[in-house]
Amino acid sequence: MTDRHGTISNAFLKFSDLSLTLASLGLVIVHWYSPAENIGFLFSYLSERVKVGNAILGFMLILFWHAAFVAQGLYVSHRLSPMTEEIKEVARGVLVTALTLLVAAQFGKWPTINVATVASFAALSFILISTMRLALRSNLRRLRERGHNVKSLLIVGGGARAQGLASVISKRQDLGYTLLGFVDNDLSFAEAELSGASWLGRVDDLPRIVAHEVIDEVAIALPIKSHYSQIESAVALLEEQGITTHVLSDLFPQKLARSQPIDLGGMPIVSLHSTPVFSWRTEAKRIFDLVVALIMLVLCSPIFLLTAIAIKLDSPGPVFHRRRVLGIGGKEFDAFKFRTMVVNGDEVLAHHQQAGD
């Protein structure tokens, strides 16, 4: 599932990475080719290089940079992974951007882009992006310690592995998890707790629990050998619901989810993400959806205006009706539509339903 805060964070990271990459390139060019005695070089250079072909090539280069960062997993949640892993992803992404810049310079015949400037560009962009992500991670950890940006976690299993994970989660407030509870087929756990989290039912009760509880992530802490079929069924259910799943053991085949190994304080964890991978396809679809939606809003605006006028003339009250509805994972959101009922329509409907009972 995709939550609003995660979407905003990803959008900020994408904008930040590309902005810092472009800023690094600009600073390197100014440093190498714009000495203090020739301060007008930058403006004259830009006036000469701004051509249609170069503009198209530059735009394609930026898209390729974005795809390179996406391919390295820079926009997947790093909540449980160490900073060193994120730094490695940044280094690989910067290396790809540097190589593509060098190739693009050959097609565009850009005299200022050579091995020296590309090396400087790679070093500077790596430093800036890594520093930004380090600052963001530090800030997020402080926010989570204060109770913000917290995700609900359900643990499957109640044994020693589950107890160890629950202990780590409860002590590491900076990870930003709140333990919702745990499930286990062993009824002896019915009266037990995992670091304050209570037993919610058997593993077979997962469909009911997922349907009625707001669950952001699930950690499976059952032994693979003795609970393989139960774990496989749980993973299949969680894949369908788009819930990020962490497996505290060795892997088994999964159809939809992508695995991501994580080391949490010496405890090996494998996370399975069944939400779509950020790529040029998903980004293109997102842009297409927004553009088409904007075009349709503009084309239909006369109809919307006439509808709003008709509603105001027909009866007093607001033009739009707002209602809280349930979305993915049982999370509520506000839905708006043109009002086609009396102002107190919800109350009237509830009254008739009660009378019918």
Brief summary of the model shown:
This protein is an alpha/beta fold.
Structural features, described:
The structure is a single chain. This protein is of the alpha/beta class. The protein has 3 domains: 4-145, no CATH class; 151-273, NAD(P)-binding Rossmann-like Domain (Rossmann fold, 3-Layer(aba) Sandwich), CATH 3.40.50; 280-356, no CATH class. The protein has helices at 4-33, 41-49, 52-71, 83-108, 115-145, 160-171, 206-212, 224-241, 280-314, 345-356; strands at residues 151-156, 177-183, 193-194, 197-201, 217-220, 244-247, 258-264, 267-273, 320-326, 332-338. The strands form 2 sheets. An 8-stranded mixed sheet has the order 3-4-2-1-5-6-8-7. A two-stranded antiparallel sheet has the order 9-10. Helix 1 runs antiparallel to helix 5 (115-145), helix 3 packs antiparallel against helix 4 and helix 4 runs antiparallel to helix 5. The longest helix is centred in the C-terminal third of the chain and has 35 residues, at 280-314. The protein is flat and about 80 Å long. Residues 1-5 have low confidence and may be disordered.
Largest sheet, in brief, is: 8 strands, mixed
**Can you count the helices?**
10
* Gyration radius from CA atoms, angstroms: 26 Å
Sheet/helix structural class:
alpha/beta
Termini Cα gap: 36 Å
The counted number of beta strands is: 10
CA-based shape: flat
* Residue runs with pLDDT of under 50 for 5 or more positions: 1-5
